[in-house]
What we know:
Largest sheet of chain B: 6 strands, mixed
CATH topology of the largest domain in chain A: MetI-like fold
Number of domains of chain B: 1
Distance between the termini of chain A: 56 Å
Order of helices and strands of chain A: HHHHHHHHHHHHH
Oligomer: heterodimer
CATH topology of chain B: Rossmann fold
Strand content of chain B: 15-25%
Shape of chain B: globular
Amino acid sequence: MTAAVANALEARRLPRWAPAATAVAAAALAYVVFALGGVLGGGPVLTVVGAVVFFLAGLALASGIVEGSRAARNRIATALIYSAFTLALLPLVSVVFTLVSKGTARLDAEFFGHSMRNIGPQDNSGGAYHAIIGTLEQVAIATLITVPLGTGGAIYIVEYGRGRLALAIRFFVDVMTGIPSIVAGLFILAFWVLIVSPHLSPDGLPFYSGFAASLALSVLMLPTITRSSEEMLRLVPVALREGAYALGIAKWKTIMRIVLPTALPGIVTGVMLAVARAAGETAPVLLVAGGGAGINFSPFHGLQNSLSIFIYDQAGSASKYAPARAWTAALTLVALVLTLTIAAKLLSRRNKLR
Amino acid sequence: MAKRIEASGISAYYGAFKAIEDINMVIEPKSVTALIGPSGCGKSTFLRSINRMHEVLPGARVEGKLTLDSQDLYGRDVDVTAVRRLIGMVFQRPNPFPTMSIYDNVVSGLRLNGVRRKSMLDTACEKALRSANLWNEVHTRLSRPGAGLSGGQQQRLCIARAIAVEPQVVLMDEPCSALDPISTLAIEDLISELKNQYTIVIVTHNMQQAARVSDRTAFFSIDKTGDPGRLIEYDETNKIFTNPSVKRTEDYITGRFG
């Protein structure tokens, strides 16, 4: 027996630089065949796809010859998983890149300090101050409405609901999750703006308001929050509830002090997903809050703008200065949602013990 | 502190399934009573009906009469949380509350039942942890999470949590089955100390454990799967393990059955 096969568990392996070398070779081959040679019409996309295919084939061939077929399959599977991951990441990276590269042009104090009042098509100034106020107020009110209702509903379904009523509620929550946002907007327009609001105004006429937008966003957020909270509450082990009951702790106190804190990080994640979705909604807000160019601090009366309406307006505007404002507003919206999510995560983790 | 439990004609159901039938036994105060028997014989179900934990599951109910020093535990106006405060429970798997520190875990029963005074909670915490033989191991890190302890320490934490509310009875549902021999020994020593103050009922699959820690032993069994569990024999532990009067008990103890 030779020294090379002294250990039966050792097998021949490709050198560590082999995958990288294969990748370079595949890229070069693809460049020659598709980009220079123009096979199948050529073009950059085909070159990249060809490079990936050559890489997979080359790696399979090399590994199959040197390491055997099992190792070759393993290498192919690994390479495919990494490719899928890269492919999934591409749109995200591209969105962030586009937002940052195009959104920084108007990222100035003017943008965050001024509204669009008296800004004409020829003006390079103007900002989204009024829209930021609108988004913050509308989303905050919608969150205040939906978080207690949503978690309360989830607690009912998980802890108290038995039989058909709970099943029916679950079913309708599922149905509500699929409601198109424009339908929610129309519902609030018909119900709140046209029927209820005339009774609230001194002149008896219907009026737009940011609050109506909050209601429309609530219709959209409520089922999301209920469903995600429900799933999170179900994940809390029964053993914890029993442990609390066995100490003579009442059921509602067990829920408030044991079950909810245990499920809190997950519930917060669900809430933030709903908030992110609501912050990006355009159609329902446009229907019931109306937009408007001026600053309106009151969510309860009068036209109010939001970042998503602002983006919609600016993107469709004829002014040559509008696209830059739209991009900056988009960047602001994403940054806002990101900041809120990070803040919520930190807050819910603060209680966690170390 | 300790009180006597009397069960007469106790049957328990899961929906339509009858899990135990007509259990009659008297559990003496300041002693350890072990419940043994094959899997599915209803010993845990009986244990859980003592502090009304059985009915927590949907569709589960209990029939018969159960008294704690002649107070009816299943009376119409009985508050179940009051029953559970008198009769504490330790589960098979340690279940410390994951969001709470060691200190908060121990005092959770008191705090969530309205005790606010810090000095009272501190005293109760130290007393319970000392009784559970855990104080020396954890007193320097009471603010650390309870879930960070080892399995045996977690189980002693759960025992400390159960006795911090000063119950009359402590029920233990296979408290050592998830633990290694050293932790098991620690818990068994603890049980022998606790019986000076509490009435203890322990369900165990380990017959050596029953023989080591208990004063009296009850043997439960079923005729076949699907039948309700019955109490076959209940006597002094010594008698059960050396000279049982029922053949089935002897078969089980000597390993010929079950």
